Amino acid sequence: MKPHWIGVFPACTTQLKRDQSLDLPATARHLEVLIQSGVSGLIVCGSLGENQTLDPDEKRAVVRCAVETARGRVPVLSGVAESSTAAAIRYVRDVEMLGASGVMLMPPMSYKGDPREVVTYFRTVARGGGLPVMIYNNPISYANDLTPALFAELADEKKFVALKESSGDPRRITELHNAVGGRYAIFTGVDDLLLEASILGINGWVAGTGIAFPRENQRLWELTRAGRWDEARRLYRWFQPLLKLDTHVHFVQYIKLCEQETGLGAEWVRAPRLTITGDERRRVLKIIRDGIKKRPCLPRK
What we know:
With about 300 residues, the chain is of the alpha/beta class. The chain has 12 helices and 8 strands. It has one domain (about 5-230): Alpha-Beta Barrel (TIM Barrel). An 8-stranded parallel β-sheet has the order 1-8-7-6-5-4-3-2. The chain is globular and about 50 Å long.
């Protein structure tokens, strides 16, 4: 059952029109660019994909778009961010029928459960569908913290094949290795901890800001895989101010603005989010434009 999920699985934005309606052709164009850059998979309808502000039919339309665009070249995963266990199971079953290869399961969005409730939720949703699951741990954003001890408790459920670690504490990578060994594929979900996490040992990267800089993002990953640390550090130091945009509460707005500046998308977001303005916009644009100006010249493959 365990799939070989390794490498860069970018968290993809959902492209919108100015009136906040879905722009599926623009979404498909960006997904194609990401595939061409060499990514190993795609994750749609995650936090960066504005899952919680999409209507149920819209989420399914985005998944269908991604599956049709990928055409089997890379696996397509969908974020699952429903408020109830029953709704999460329905969604997993639906995206399986649409051709998704797996799901990235977030904790319940409207309730901070105790450890028993959280474990029960993850087990029940996994058993309710037929797809393999990447568990998403982000206690900073979602209040529930899946500790290494809880991952060890969940290790007997075969559908759990990977975990996205976004606690912001790189020590967790070693703690996970010590607690669960090679049981799960470990992905980092914090962009500006990529190099630190790579040194400690990860299998993949759920990349954020890199969707606006896909060639550089893939190159950085490949350098870490080859152990070419001097080259990786140089590229990482250029990339770090951009990667840090993924760690702010306005990360969706920031990364969509990155996409707009690099010609890969538009900045429109779904309310209650609003595009950024004023001093914040000027500050973020400076970071993006400085990064573009200093963009490294990468070797041709």
